[in-house]
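Q: Two folds, back to back.
A: First:
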Amino acid sequence: MQRAMLFGLCVLGIAAATAAVGLAGIAGRVTYAAGRGGGDATQASTSWRLGDGVTYENMTVFPVLSKQSADTRGYETLDEALSSGDAVVTESGTNAMRRWREGSGPTPEYYVEGAQVNQLVLVYRGKRPLVLLAGELVSGGKQDRIIGKDRIVPVGAQPLPLDVFCVEHGRWSDGDKFSASNIIVHPSVREKAAVDQEQESVWNAVSSGSTASVAVTEDAPQVTAAAPPPLSRQAVAGAIASRAPTQSYAKIYDSPTSGIPVGAFADEMQRRFDRATSGLKDERVIGVVVAYGGEVAWSDVFASPELFASYWPKLLRSYVVEALARPATHEHATLDDARQFLMPLIGRETTESEPGVYRWREVSNERYAEISLDTLAPSELQLHWLKIHRSN
């Protein structure tokens, strides 16, 4: 299918937001006690702080540390659900018919006609609410897709239309089922899905590596012999073309054959991160703030260490892809920079919810965006919060 045709099919709109005062800190859970020079954020019921940054090459990761956490064992992640069969994702169509085979357990039978690029169908038969994060990749079907928005799927939900974006140009096969990929796309792509909600912007971010204004777009900068090569536009295009004729996003991670050192970079950052957080006594890591060079660009914070740990491996790899897409630099963000990044945001607020299940909330302005995902039952709890330094 031609790229222009895909873009015509792939565009998703975003509802107009109303102007409102932004949330204070992490979606109202955090109240700030920061002076002019910055300071740690504190929570009324659960204290947390930022740990010292862990740096490798042009990337610095600041751990978010907490002494307390919520019990999130009652939630299932998308990769867990797809791997266990609790969830089935399939192509969608206006004439699709779905039914369950009697006595077949959680395995659905589908009849799919008129598949749509920007919508799939999710059938969930798990016994715990399912958490979906924007940017999670599902592999297979007619084309690999990413989840378009954070949400929670309740136990016993009816087959659910699922808004997605395509990240694989060049394949439109006869398949209709999807599997777990254990991949979340890197921040430039994830931003375009979660905030901009535009298919063409998503694809441009995939093909260019990074949409940040400091990104390498054509020619790679000079780097030291020890530094990994930047993931320039040509490097992305070359790796995809040579390793994935269908231009599959997942092949970016195929470092042994692509020549892109995602695995080696992630392994070294993991070693340094483990060493920096190994001496913690009564605190555990519940999230991270990520900087590239001197720019604090991203944060992911979760309700518990366990929930963070379930996402951390694929989040780390996604941050690394972004690091490789940006130029090498000797400048690094400071702890005060990271604290300043977490200051309350004032901007346009948009809220969506499913009564008794979840609430999704976004606050954004020209420079930043915050997105929070709250579960509403059995009690209100913020499961995930992210803040983005918008790339353009």
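A: Second:
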Amino acid sequence: MSMRVLQVDIVVPVRNEERDLAPSVRRLVSYLRAGFPFTARVTIADNGSTDGTWAIADRLARELDEVRAVRMAEPGRGRALRAIWSQSDAEVLAYMDVDLSTDLNALLPLVAPLLSGHSDLAIGTRLARGSRVIRGPKRELISRCYNMLLHACMGARFSDAQCGFKAIRREQARALLPLTCDTGWFFDTELLVLAERAGLRIHEIPVDWIDDLDSRVDIVATALADMRGMARLGSSLARGSVKVPRLRRSSLPGARPAPELPLQIASFTVVGIASTIAYVLLYLLLRGVMSAQVANVLSLLVTAVANTAANRRLTFGISGRQHAARRQVKGLIAVGIGLALTSGALAVLHSPSRGLEVAVLIAANLVATVIRFVLYRTWVFGKSQAYRGEPIERDHLRSEAFDPHPPAAQGAQGVHAEPGPAPAVRA
């Protein structure tokens, strides 16, 4: 068979998966042969299996032209992906979980924008409108809480860090992989955060996803490891020990990077202090002519509109009129929490002095301010783009048009790779 340019390398990390490996790989290869328009290879990455997984992987590599098998002695999905992606000769490097929980029809929309050069990294998302997901409430809750923490603490803007269905262009992977440290499940999140810091375009694909009821992933242990990974990565970025290169810069006139978390906190604090002062002065002015509850509501509403507008422009770096009204409405909903806290605080007071009344309101507002900052980052302005300005620079939840028959590949032939000395490879 003549050699062609390898466009997509699909890595399937496995560890002790002797039951699911063969049927899943055969199903994947059948999908590729049925009309996948790019040259593709399936790389089985056995990382530390102690059962019959490697024997099955070796047999599949011998039987199927599109498949090669790589054996690594040490376990760790992140370790396996970093090692194989670092050496792959494909234009686009992808991976998916062996249980094929994600519908394979999402593979083409995942890799096409990367091959066209439109985007740099693509992820499947189970948490976006248009996704169809079947899984238990426990996993759903943990996943949503984890991604909310990423948005609030790491400034992340991608919607789903943990879906086992991702792809990245080779040149971007070569630049970012040396900066990653995690060898396990946090590798995905680490790579995504670094990609955003590097200014890369992240393309999101709503997927159909069915939970694997026989999954042997320890949810609690994985969650704890992810939290440790967030703390390590956040600390490294804050100290500057990880230097992330700027791999893509916006070509839009006047576009500028979104402020980093410390600058956002500082700006939000300044805006919050100004808003609190305005709130107190307005409350004292209105309190002389109306009840405490009515004065509190009116003061909060007036200062909330100004606060949201100021944070939109100064804290989150968003200009222009697009979505301004929608964000104001969301901002008012977020302020509703402050209203509930302050109204509740007033309700428990019985004939207080004016000084105590104001002190309690300030304390309640401080608590509400912290909650509002998290909501601003995760919801109100959480979908804002990495580069501000119009049109939108990033490509969230939208498929890119592409030529289904590029000149370099008119079929779905597999490409063999020469086996290297280490790790063990069967192609």
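Q: And?
A: Confidence is low (pLDDT under 50) at residues 250-258, 383-422.
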